[in-house]
Structure formats: C-alpha cells, structure tokens
Amino acid sequence: MPTENASFDSSLRIRGELDLRALRAQDSSGLLTGIDRAVVWTIKLTTRFRGITRRDGVLLHGGAGWGEVAPFWNYGLEDSAAWLAAGLEWALAGATGLPQIRHSVPVNVTIPEVSSEAARTLVRRSRADTAKVKVAGASDSDSLDSDIQRLGAVRDELGPEGRIRIDANGAWDPRTAATVLPLLDKAAGGLQYVEQPCPDLADLVALRRVIDIPIAADESIRLSTDPLAVARSGAVDVAILKVAPLGGVRRAYTLAQSLGMPAVVSSALDTSVGLSAGVSLAAALPELAGACGLGTIRLLDRDVAAPSFTPVSGALPVRPVHVSRRLLASVAADDDLTSRWQVRLGHIVSALRTRRERERRDPGCAIAGIPL
Ligand SMILES: O=C(O)CCC(=O)c1ccccc1C(=O)O
Ligand SMILES: [Mg+2]
C-alpha cells in the first residue's frame, strides 16, 4: 500500500538526497521554504588536516543556486545553526545586493603539517606569493623542529618577497608562544602574522605585550559569544573571517564593519560552493590584510563544481559557482551517512529556529548585536 513514507524508500531516492518533506514537517517556522533539494556529499581530503581525513556536508538548492551546510561533526547544534543560516542565505539570496569592489581575490597556499619536501611542492605548484603554514599541531617533541624545517623550506621556495603566516590554532599558552615565536619568525625569515597563537583573547593580550609579530584572531572571532572584544582588546591586528561559522556572507560583512580592522577571509575546508561565498565576502570588503585563505580546494580529493574554485597564480576570480550534476552524483553519500545527516539537519533546523526566536524576543542577545 503506498504511503507518505514510500516516497523516501531508498530504492526511489537519488543517492545522498535528503527527504525535504520530512524535514519541513518537523519545521513549523518555514526555514526551509524555497529549498527544493538537499544532497549529502562526502569527500576525502588529499592531506590529513587538523586530524581530519574526510569532509562531508549538505548542499541545499534554492532560488539563487546551491548553498553549503557542513559543520564538523564535533560541532554542537548551537554552533551548527550559524552554518545552516549561511547555507540557506547562499541558496536563497546569493550575492545579490553585496558590494563588489574587486574582480579577483588573492589567496594564500595552505600548508598542512606535511614534510618539508611536500611543503615545497605545494608552494611551487600554487604560484602564490603568500603561504599559510600550520604549526604546533603535532604533540610529539619533534613538532617544533619539524615546524622550523618546514618554514625554512617554504621561505626558500617563496623567495624573499613572499609572505609567510602561521596558524597555531590556539596551541600555546602565552609563555610558550613568547618562547617559540621568535624561533619560528627566524626560521621563516619574517612572519607576516601569527594566527590564533593562544586559545583565549586574554592570552593574546598578554602575548601582544611581549612580541612584535602581528596577531590574527580566528577562533577568538568565530567561536566567541563576543567577537567584538577582539577589536576592543587592541591586541589583534587582523580579523580572520569565515562565512559559515559566522552565519553567512552578510553577517560576516556586517561583523567586519563593526570590527573595523583589516580582514582575511578563510575557508572551512569547503567545496567550491562554500568557497564561492567566501570569495564574494572577500570581494565586498574594503580592506583585506593580504591574501585570503580560500585556496583550499586542492586539499579536497574531489569537488562538486565545474570549474572548481582553483587558484590561478595565487588568485581566485569573483564569479558564480556551477554545480555539476555528474560531480554531485560522484560524491553523493551512501544511505548510512545520508540518514545521519537527515537526523542532524533536522536538529540544526530546530536550533536555528530557537535561536532566531530568542533573538527576536531579546535583540540584545544576538552575537555582536547582529541577528542570525
Ligand atoms: O586559512 C587557510 O589558509 C585555510 C583554512 C584553514 O586553515 C582552516 C580550515 C578549516 C578549519 C580551520 C581552519 C583554520 O584556519 O584554523
Ligand atoms: Mg585558523
């Protein structure tokens, strides 16, 4: 006997396709109105990155095209709500109404914690003039040595004119940072800045008093309930902005204005769909603090768009993204992962609805005063 549920019979469903009807039935507030497809993708990383070897997420299709929702699995629902808001915004509104003050966005090559030889190859192939090197990720005692070796190799490959920045992802306490940073600065032949050397803003403030290397804040902005504290602290020189955790291009743009500091737009290991949103944010910002961290498509083994947002000579063009049916089919998730996202996305929709209701009742509780 045919029932409602028969439409979700896996034999009738396209691989990776979520049951939007079931998601809408749980959602009284109409958050998914205008979304006509939701497809789960899974892609291997070419290099292990911060302990991750695979990325997966959902692509939502709406009136403006595709948007990406891919919070890491260790993110809670409250944080993931911002990623959903970003994906919905991109699928429903795209870049409409945003300023575009540049046609091309300079990007850095991102160097994971790989061997010096592998780092050289990444730099050489990228033809970028700026490298962002991950440091302090390995827990073994050789970590500092290999960071020093890798930075030397990157400088050698970039030449004296190239710029090198490092990202410690909050690995150090201020004392360790103050000891290690001069060594890394020397090995790199000068650092443009260090991204999130310590986890807490108070530690960045303490560090700023004892080192001259400029400091960029990433986690202190995207994971904070008070990201504007970064600007008030006076200890941070560069704001790292990521579209998905900040709840979308418009919200990130408004936050950049409130911060009033030079910014670098970075990816969250997105497909070209997420990268295209980052590129549009970077194209809208009046003051970039150098190359953006959007040259990450090569860290993914596959993509959903043709052509990909692959940097050419260290830059990405500002243009719409075209998702390929064939590529989407080739990265579509199996039934198990699709079911997990079906459940998770339902919870994230509820979390976003709850947060928006709360912000409507009490506008003062919106993060940075900008509604999600
Ligand atoms: O900024 C870049 O060059 C790449 C993006 C990046 O490093 C990143 C990607 C996923 C999750 C966290 C981070 C990070 O900046 O810490
Ligand atoms: Mg970072």
Automatic annotation (TrEMBL):
Query: Which InterPro entries does the record cross-reference, listed alphabetically?
Result: Enolase-like_C_sf, Enolase_C-like, Mandelate_racemase_C, OSB_synthase_MenC1
Q: Report any one BP term from Gene Ontology.
A: menaquinone biosynthetic process
Q: Where on this chain does Mg(2+) bind? A: D167, E195, D218
Active site feature: K134 (proton donor), K242 (proton acceptor)
- Pfam families named among the record's database cross-references: Enolase_like_N, MR_MLE_C
Its name, as the record gives it, is: o-succinylbenzoate synthase
Give the originating organism: Actinomyces massiliensis F0489
Q: Pathway it acts in?
A: Quinol/quinone metabolism; 1,4-dihydroxy-2-naphthoate biosynthesis; 1,4-dihydroxy-2-naphthoate from chorismate: step 4/7; Quinol/quinone metabolism; menaquinone biosynthesis
